[in-house]
Amino acid sequence: MADTIRDAPIGQIIRWVTGNKYFQYPEEKAGFELPISYTTALNSSEKPTALLGSRSTSETPTPLERITTKTSHGGNEELALTRTKSRGDTQNFTEERLEIDQELALERTKTTPIAPTKTADGNILVDWYTTDDPANPQNWSNIKRNLITFLICLYTFAVYTGSAIYTSSEEGVIRKFGVSPTDASLPLSLYVLAYGIGPLIFAPMSEIPVIGRNPVYVATFFIFVILSLPTALVDNFAGLLVLRFLQGFFGSPCLANSGATMQDMYSLLKLPYAMTFWVAAAYCGPSLGPLLSGFAVTAKGWRWSLWEILWLAGPILIVMFLFLPETSTPNLLLRRADRLRKLTGDHRLKAQSEIDQEGLKPSAVIIDALIKPIEITVKDPAIAFVNLYTSLVYGIYYSFFEAFPLVYPVMYGFSLGMIGVVFLCVLVACFIGMAIYISYLYFYIVPDIMKNGLRVQEHRLIPALFGCFGPPIGLFIFAWTSNPDIHWIASVIGITIYAASVFVVMQCIFVYVPLSYPQYAASLFAGNDFFRSALACGSILFGRPLFINMGIGKGVSVLGGLSTLGIIGMFTLYFTGAKLRARSKFAVA
């Protein structure tokens, strides 16, 4: 627990205020002995024979020495344990990578010293001291990793809930400011748009080793919580729009970086389980927003939903501030290298991330993150389909917030609070989707990987081939059972089918992308976040006019018809994906 608090923001602030007197690292404590391998490396005058190639114990390559990554020059250089799997630095998922991952997991069960490596210019690369080094997030206990995962999920849930929790206040905003229903939906749509823009900036920022993940998380979420106060008090409509946009923007790092945090902690075979729970938190958040605010707004007024954001996010911020440790391996080793330099006075001790970022301009990283997703989307048909399809189903999801008020109060006499209860069907759908996908992982894909190794990337799309039929089926059921003469449960079943199938399809797609485009995974995820949020923003604005002018039956049928195109696209991607990747300069064949 002390280590967790030390690495959390509160611990780092206490260290800074007290001059590192409290919450010390091992290198700062009296009696710390530098590992013998580092003493040997510092005293050795031998010149290295390779950039990152010295073997620590024998002539047989260790798993650490066999992990390779392509350099910017197109060749291969050996990748030490200093690198982390993240959205910004994704290794190719090959059979060799799987074997290495398994061997590393085995090595972490025993204490084996890891010798530092000398570079060609004489630097000594600081690494983990042993294979089971407790400072390595991959070596943390299951309890610690699961608690961090739970905290990240809570953070994500709070930000996503903050979007749709406002919907119950739209009628009150119309009366208070004298705006149209479409204008009253702008605080929701701008919030959604903003948390799609944020990842384009915050995702690459968290990959800069000197920054890491925690400063981005805590600083932006602190601003998010502070903004919740004036948002609940604002007395003019323009101010409400600006504040809601800023709320979404500063809440977006959970969308941008949480996946990277999971990858910092979990191995290749365990990561999908953690990601499933995180995606579920994001998926359920908007659907529970109207439930949390519906009855309260009816009793207390339209501002109440905005106060609930503060009450939900504030305690989570406090817990993050106290107990969320840094997980970025490049950042952790960079700070360890700094401590070792202070201890020894030898400036040859450097982290690999320090060398990597020499000459790196943050502005260049951010500009590349803004341009690369658009370039790949335009030039690569597979990514164009992924962005288009995920944006469509995500936009339809957010159109429910405009459709439900036209169905259940009008046709079935539901109150504002009861509309929120209807949204529980999305929560049920999420549980169904999770059960299906986790069962697929546990009973099929993980045993298959253990037995046969990693197959072609399209193999991971098999559940999506079945799931892609769900969205149009569910939408057509909702469209033509939303009728006063038909029990309301029929339309709810349609939404449940839609939401459960979309959950499974999205999981498959978000595994396929980093498998096929590892070098650009960070840019592609950030770009996809933006495209999805942009269309969702638009769907909130065009949804109500569409459903009013065409009627719920025809309007939702249009969306159902569009989603049938996803069936064609999914099967095309499955059968021709290998050919598309072979022609793409961005993909791994």
From TrEMBL:
<feature type="transmembrane region" description="Helical">
    <location>
        <begin position="412"/>
        <end position="440"/>
    </location>
</feature>
<dbReference type="InterPro" id="IPR011701">
    <property type="entry name" value="MFS"/>
</dbReference>
<dbReference type="InterPro" id="IPR020846">
    <property type="entry name" value="MFS_dom"/>
</dbReference>
<keyword id="KW-0472">Membrane</keyword>
<feature type="transmembrane region" description="Helical">
    <location>
        <begin position="534"/>
        <end position="552"/>
    </location>
</feature>
<dbReference type="Pfam" id="PF07690">
    <property type="entry name" value="MFS_1"/>
</dbReference>
<feature type="domain" description="Major facilitator superfamily (MFS) profile">
    <location>
        <begin position="148"/>
        <end position="589"/>
    </location>
</feature>
<feature type="transmembrane region" description="Helical">
    <location>
        <begin position="461"/>
        <end position="480"/>
    </location>
</feature>
<feature type="transmembrane region" description="Helical">
    <location>
        <begin position="147"/>
        <end position="166"/>
    </location>
</feature>
<feature type="transmembrane region" description="Helical">
    <location>
        <begin position="486"/>
        <end position="513"/>
    </location>
</feature>
<keyword id="KW-0812">Transmembrane</keyword>
<feature type="transmembrane region" description="Helical">
    <location>
        <begin position="271"/>
        <end position="292"/>
    </location>
</feature>
<feature type="region of interest" description="Disordered">
    <location>
        <begin position="47"/>
        <end position="75"/>
    </location>
</feature>
<feature type="transmembrane region" description="Helical">
    <location>
        <begin position="304"/>
        <end position="324"/>
    </location>
</feature>
<dbReference type="InterPro" id="IPR036259">
    <property type="entry name" value="MFS_trans_sf"/>
</dbReference>
<feature type="transmembrane region" description="Helical">
    <location>
        <begin position="216"/>
        <end position="234"/>
    </location>
</feature>
<keyword id="KW-1133">Transmembrane helix</keyword>
<dbReference type="GO" id="GO:1990961">
    <property type="term" value="P:xenobiotic detoxification by transmembrane export across the plasma membrane"/>
</dbReference>
<feature type="transmembrane region" description="Helical">
    <location>
        <begin position="558"/>
        <end position="576"/>
    </location>
</feature>
<feature type="transmembrane region" description="Helical">
    <location>
        <begin position="186"/>
        <end position="204"/>
    </location>
</feature>
<protein>
    <recommendedName>
        <fullName>Major facilitator superfamily (MFS) profile domain-containing protein</fullName>
    </recommendedName>
</protein>
<dbReference type="GO" id="GO:0015244">
    <property type="term" value="F:fluconazole transmembrane transporter activity"/>
</dbReference>
<dbReference type="GO" id="GO:0005886">
    <property type="term" value="C:plasma membrane"/>
</dbReference>
